[in-house]
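For reproducibility, we list the full input for the iron/sulfur cluster complex.
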Amino acid sequence: MIIPDQNIISYFKRHQALFGDQLILGERHREETTAGRIVEPSPPGALQAFNDDIKSCRKCALGASRRNFVFGAGNPDADLVFVGEAPGEREDQLGEPFVGRAGILLDKILAAIDLTRQDVYILNVLKCRPPNNRDPVPEEVKQCEPYLKQQLRIIKPKLIVALGRVAAKTLLRLNESLKNMRKNSYIYEGIELRVTYHPAALLRNSNFKAPAWEDFQAIRDRYRELTGTQPGSAHPAAGEAKAS
Ligand code: SF4
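The corresponding predicted structure, in tokenized form, follows.
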């Protein structure tokens, strides 16, 4: 028997009290996106309500060692979502994803493809920092990944980019090298997913910068293709209905 996650049940109850019949479930979203029909945006405040419901989570041991829960940040109606593996030390200190040097580099890369943090959403598979920035362990992923999936059901992006091998292999359950994974396009929760280097890896090894730039140009082109955005034009406004 499958026992539903209590935090998610609590979220849906609260959400239903706020928004009544406008509650949109993930299965319906996936059917609509794959069928190519219009996807209605989630009700305003849905992502914040979910944050409020799960921010005190203690489902795994990381809940006891974290300084701050790191939910994610950006445009709650973004068409492009970046996913890292877990908060690092600065993120744990500040409660924000991708801050510090890697975050500054990510901002520069976004600017180079005509985007800002306000155009995209940035989050991690785990919401709490693993000690000494070790890789997530399977039990932590098992407990925390449902939160990521629910975030994606609310945001409804058209494209996901996994930043780094650990995030990619965690989401895709693949034991491939990043070099192999970045050549392919995958589907995660019914959404197209691409893989590229984590900005921290680019800071450690400048040899990764050229292939990463190739990846980000391809991500930019695919994002424009999926959203109908023209170079130099305004990005799709938050709250507009999304056509898949
Ligand atoms: S890592 Fe995820 S599952 Fe574990 S305590 Fe934090 S929010 Fe909860």
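Residues 57-60, 62-63, 126-128, 140, 143-144 surround iron/sulfur cluster (CB under 6 Å). The first helix runs from residue 6 to 19. Both points were considered when choosing residues for closer inspection.
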